[in-house]
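Dear U.,

For the methods section draft, I wanted the exact inputs and outputs in one place so we can describe them consistently. I've listed the two proteins in the order they'll appear in the manuscript figures. Please don't edit the token lines directly; just add comments below if something needs changing.

First protein:
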Amino acid sequence: MQGMIGHHAQAIEMTALLYTRTNRADMKLLAERIDVSQADEIKMMKQWLEARGLEIPSEHAHHMGGPLMPGMLTAEQMTKLAAAKGDEFDRLFLEAMIFHHEGALTMVAKLIATPGAAQGGEIYDFASHVDTDQKMEISRMTALLKTIKGRTEGQP
């Protein structure tokens, strides 16, 4: 839970870039969906940690350095994303967010595979929700990415 807060926070940072760098309504709808789901999950994770008297990390702890969690973008990758606009931004964003979501799936799989870690119904339900939600969004983003690559490569 502690690591996933920073992971979700980076996804929100990525979507914040989208609103000023794309002209596509479908990309903006995707960003809104990611924003809402990630913010709701951050709130739930903080409440879960607080109820157990555990440390609640800053949502910006991932900026402090150290090893990156699976799917996290480096500062350089975030800078490259922030510098792009239009179709180039859309392509980079979708590739990065797919990578980011795949990292969350890796973290969930590790949690579920750890003996005793996801035995509580609440944690298992949360992990299952993240798994399902991230897979669904990856599917949507993959379809959008094909459309954008087709436009940039001159395909109909």
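Second protein (the one for the lower panel):
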Amino acid sequence: MRKRRIRLLLALAAPIVLDARAALPETAKPAEKPEAIDVVELIPQEPPKWSPTNLFAPITGFFHGGPSYWYGERSVEIETTPPGAVLDLFYVRGNFQKRYEQADAPVRVMLPSRIEASDRDNLTVRALLDGYRQQELQIPVRSQTDRVMIDLSPLPNSLLAFTQTTFAGRGSLSFLTKEAVTFRLQKSKDGFDVVLTETSNTPTADATMQGVANSLIAGLKPQQLGEDLMIRVRLTDLGRSDDFETRSRQGFDPVRGVHVFNLDLAPRQGDDAARQSALRALGRIRTADVTGCALDFDEALREELDPAELARALTPNGSHTDPYLRAAMKRLGELSPDGVIRMRDGGRFRGSVPIELMAAATQPNEALGYLALLRRFVAEMETEPYRESTLRGLIAPELTPDRFDALLRQAQEREQSCERGGSGGTSAG
């Protein structure tokens, strides 16, 4: 009878207990278990040699919190900031490596118990993350360290921007970096690799290297290899020929406060033939190419380009394109009405007067019709499908190919709209 009463009372109390549990607030519910991390076992197959420590471990263990210090499970949890670094894990006894594993942070490394390790056993950790300095540390297996946070330092140098220009049979790759760069060149099967040591890539520079293709360069592929940035340069058949050689030069841009490393693909026989070809090409450009509806194209493209970037691209800066740009400005003066180069701000310069021509050349980004003339100049000098890439290298090397393609199409549509409407184009007067 007593047992039946107890079972009855328990049956009546069960719903009350369940209701009480359901009524608990959220904070009273059991906390969720932390997300599991990878576990790597790094335990040598053979134990160390016997030592007096094994004899006195039962006694000395009391000074370290109990027997578990010597005989308990041993592990070290390793994290990095930023997370996701590749960890090389070495178990070293004396000067000999006993085990090696590789893992991604964070990770928990299982080690032998302290009694199964000697005082010369160490866990060596090497952390590697693209764009950061390599870090290495040692953790004695017998220590009480069970958690390590490795703070990775950014590399001292970074590639801030990249531009490329190919014109008149010569190419140039320009790398703008935070600090002066140390580099090396390596030949490859289809071109060469440029290795910038202790330099990290940036999204801006990476974007402008995508889709690059011209008469000399078939493509670029940046790749961060730990502390070094490698740019794989794939050349065309012309670029790989013996007619070209690579030349490097470094400088400093005081306006932007950046270092400039230039790598040129130069013809071994010099530029005389290219210059003669350029003069003939300029002679084939006519007034209609820089007036009328061509000015609508010129103005539409100029409105969308960043004025500072356009000025940097067109202003002489020691590049191999400088003499061609100066010759183009002179030709603009010859083709403009009354021989006068007109500027967006209303200024006028006579192309036949050397000092005025020089003044116009110092602000080419303001000269009306200059972009339209360069478009025609490129069309006379380059063959398809590289004309658009060449034009981008001359007037907007800091833009990505896709962005420049969109701006170019908009400017062409505005020119075509002018031609259909017969409006005669933007006034140059």
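Candidate sentences for the figure legend, describing the second protein: The chain has three domains: 38-151, 157-267, 272-421. The radius of gyration is 35 Å.

Thanks,
Y.
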